[in-house]
């Protein structure tokens, strides 16, 4: 003991060396070794487990049911007007009321009433287009609106199988009657009239439709 103390610089050096030895040992590094006593079952080590972040399908939130687009149709329960167009035929039209217009005649749908429309008779020839490829009719072709008051706010014109522009003269005359105008091919014009007449009423929207089989010089026969 004396020789050991002498080597460490005396008793004070021995105490200092012992203190440094204790301080240099970190508690975190001093991990005891698990031992088993004789006759007792060994205890398993406790491990910290991390719960899987991936959820099972049972825990997944339920998806909302698919949207029925028919439920979004606010006009679904509104009855269609009797003058709505059910079918466009080669030489005429079939209306929701059961009325059919045939023989190559057009249809004038005004204020809930349906009329056969032959605007070419106002021109004296079987022609509806001018030399510029525009749909052009004289004032007499819209004579019914001169007798009607109040007039519709919008006139939808179906110009035949394919769309074409309205001539400035015809557009000006319709504007003088106090109506706005929308020009489409006949199928789309009929669909547009059906929608707007159902939404706004037949008193606000009128239609003037030419059969889809119309041909310049011979008509729809």
Automatic annotation (TrEMBL):
GO CC terms, sorted: mitochondrial inner membrane
Biological process annotations from GO: mitochondrial respiratory chain complex I assembly
Protein name: NADH dehydrogenase [ubiquinone] 1 alpha subcomplex assembly factor 3
Region named Disordered: 25-76
Superkingdom assignment: Eukaryota
Species per Swiss-Prot/TrEMBL record: Purpureocillium takamizusanense
Xref: Pfam families: DUF498
